[in-house]
Give the backbone structure.
Amino acid sequence: AEFDIMYNEGISRAGDLLDLAVEHDIVTKRGAFYSFGDTRLGQGRENSKIFLQENQDLFLVIENQILEAANLPQRAESIAAST
């Protein structure tokens, strides 16, 4: 397992979400740009993580798609606020 540990934050849930979403073809990565459908998340991984942290509704949608792909129960609300 590989994950980001951020100073004064702990494990980066946004980073894990982004990596899993790319792995499951939920988020596309073209060059340095990350996109979810027609929504551009950002240029570079760090900017995309920040975008996801600031957009909790989109975080939840992507999180639920990952859980669905893994045949796990979906969440009613995101726990990303702890990122």
Remarks:
- The chain has one domain: 5-82.
- The radius of gyration is 12 Å.
